[in-house]
Amino acid sequence: MDARATLPAYSPQSIAPTSAAPTSAEAPVVALNGFTRRFGDVTVIEDLDLTIQPGEFVALLGRSGSGKTTLLRTLAGLDSAEGQDVQVPTARAVVFQDARLLPWKKVWRNVALGLRGGDIRNRAQDALREVGLGHRLDAWPLTLSGGEAQRVALARALVREPSLLLLDEPFAALDALTRLRMHDLVLNLWRAHRCAVLMVTHDVDEAVALADRILVLDGGRIAAEERITIPRGQRAELTQPLRQKLLGILGGTDAAIDERVIRFPQAAYPQASAQHAAPLQVAGA
After folding, report:
1. Domains of the chain from N-terminus onward
2. Strand partners, 164
3. Taking CA 233 as the corner, what is the angle to CA 231 and CA 66, rounded to the nearest 5 degrees?
4. Of the ranges 46-55, 183-192, 209-218, 265-274, which one carries the lowest mean pLDDT score?
5. What is the rounded distance in angstroms from the CA atom of residue 221 to the CA atom of residue 67?
6. d(CA 205, CA 207)
């Protein structure tokens, strides 16, 4: 891993193993070696090494323009990786910030979009029940709330039983309460399906609350990496110092970051501590 600013280790007393953590003996679901992406003369990602293990939940932080979307599009197969050492599973699915439902198709048909073989309606119904929307099977997308639409998008992704689930800021447009409920839902679905997850987010608290591992992408490289072994729901003591460290890296104030990383202005997060005083609480793994 190209980790140029590793976060400090926390005391062993505060760290407890969690069953959600993948074992290193398993072959990775995602493996990138020396991955580089250029658009003309602009290098967006440079010489990036990345592995994601089966069942691992990884959060990817980074400011706009850091290469997050480019990386996600490559892993999703939306951009070609021809000629690069990139290994991703065939079974993969993406949930975007916008639910991207087809308004002229009922909810179950949106979930079943592209499925072949078997009783497609029943498969869609089972997936909708998992996200708490079994009663909205025949609803039209325009009658759904924002949270319901995102749950449909999750059902559409998970009905395909992906080995890799890619989440591109899927909760950014939701209100705070709905967002917390979606956190719990995603964790429950992740535990049930055991797929690897890569979640792109700008929310440091969200990353700390949900992920096994947090990566910070900046200047097309991994600027920091932190693995969290404290069970979810017991991370209150971890949240504040880790938030401050990650915001410092995102803000360009950490001296350990290579000078090639383009830095935020010093005032980018002038009141970060006050704005994020209450850590998220998520049910334990």
Report:
1. 56-91+162-285 (3.40.50.300), 98-161 (no CATH)
2. 92, 196
3. 80
4. 265-274
5. 8
6. 5
